[in-house]
Design brief:
Layout (H helix, E strand, L loop, with lengths): L4 E2 L5 E2 L12 H41 L2 H56 L16 H22 L1
Antiparallel strand pairs: 1-2
Helix pairs in contact: 1-2
Amino acid sequence: MRGAKRESNDVPQKTNRSVKNYALQPYLQVKLGLYSVVLSLIFSAAIAGILYFHLGKLSEIILELTGVPDEVRDLLHQYVNPAIYQIGATIAVYVVVNIAITILFTHRLIGPTIAFRRHVKMISEGKYQHRTILRKGDSFMELADDLNRLSSQLSSQFEKNSK
């Protein structure tokens, strides 16, 4: 488990983690976030295309009905241009927030695998006293409990056989 201090008997203790430790597998975590962003952008582009088509038709009708197409066109551009900038800023914020949330959630999924791999390595080295301690909210708590029970049983059997 990353960020855990070790005592002499290799039992991890809880410590605070730094922000950089949230990117346990940065490529995978950012890739998942980007998949989500790309799918959202495709959906948004489809919606924008539909709106563009229908608003274009509406603006043509308005231009025909008013009899002052140049003034109406200028008014429409004055209204639409700030909206385009706002949409661009919103998309940028969305991308950053989406990737950040993806990293946080995948950290809860990927983090325990590191602790499990370390625990299995300790067991294979005969260090049966090692335990997996996961953080509150991590996935696979039941698996950690099962792995800890296995270590206890192996430790008991080893002590029993060595007597």
